Fold:
Amino acid sequence: MKCRHCGTELTLPLIDLGSAPPSNSYLTPAALFGPEKWYPLRVLVCTGCWLAQTEDYAHHAELFAEDYAYFSSFSTSWLAHAKRYVEDMVDRFALDRDSHVVEVASNDGYLLQYVRERGISCLGIEPTASTAAAARKRGIEVFERFFGVELAKELAAAGQRADLMAANNVLAHVPDINDFVAGFDCLLKDDGVATFEFPHLLNLVKQNQFDTVYHEHFSYLSLTAVTRIFEANGLTVFDVDELPTHGGSLRVYAQRSATGPHAVTPRVGAALGRERDAGMATADFYSGFQARAERVKNDLVAFLIDARRQGLKVAGYGAAAKGNTLLNFAGIRGDLIEFVVDRNPAKQGKFLPGCRIPVVGEDALRSARPDLIVVLPWNLRDEVVAQLDYVREWDARFVVAVPALEVIG
Structure:
């Protein structure tokens, strides 16, 4: 396989999680009687541009189908993050009613609803029919297509060039990263700004966040790789923020290289320096990640087997893609975790891909009164523990597995 960005032959492994079905391919009861497609789940690192990337097996249209079940608005902390983002961008870049905002991967309108509240013109681009429909119910105009140069040129010709383009947690999801990034150069106004948020590969490796590896994530991103990809496709990074979201993310600010007016801040050089000092442009940085992931797997399986021997009832919380990666890598099935609770009605009544554990509503916790609740979206652990504080009525304890097994009593 060759690098998706620079074409270098890929030989440096990051991690091999065996095989799994696409992590958001939830099963209906009828689908339980049929087969599932499983694909190898392996990540390699390019020693030319240092882009970490999954091997190609599944087409993106299959991963982001019309019944895609991830809806951003079911996390209150993520909604708060989106609202703060809009407030900050409006203030920093003096956006007003004459401005135009485009969000790529707008999902269910979780972010653009706050742009619309400000009276600012906005457009969402979202290829999954289920989430696009939810956004339209909020009164948001949505183009239901995958983004790239072709669509960007169409929108620019139709008068949709943007003062601000937002791309939160989508850069990792695109198979043709060059075409995707080049589309921003086409659609931004001459002085427009694009922001990209993505989990930081530095944290993923250092904090053992291996469960964020799944097929929908084609790339795992450092600022080192992103600046090179952007420069090759008409964009210049002029600022960067470090964020706590998703276990540690970067927000990168970019402008058109040919016309952008913003000076590059010292934060860009400082962030690149931290990556350089960590050794991210060396093979040594990526060694040992496989062993740390396997340690988490073994510890969790041993813990759940011991809980079963003790007769304890175990449930999961959060039918998250990262949880599906963990459960399938560990080979955990319904004998060790009876059910998984999720607030999203689109997931309730279905079954997790691969492990086929049922997904139920939150009322199941009160009726089943589990002794242990495994929080699968560990990045939301504080939100989940606070939300489920009532389970302490029957002395239930919370468990997280990543970055290391921890019981919250």
User: Anything to note?
Assistant: The chain has a mean pLDDT of 94.
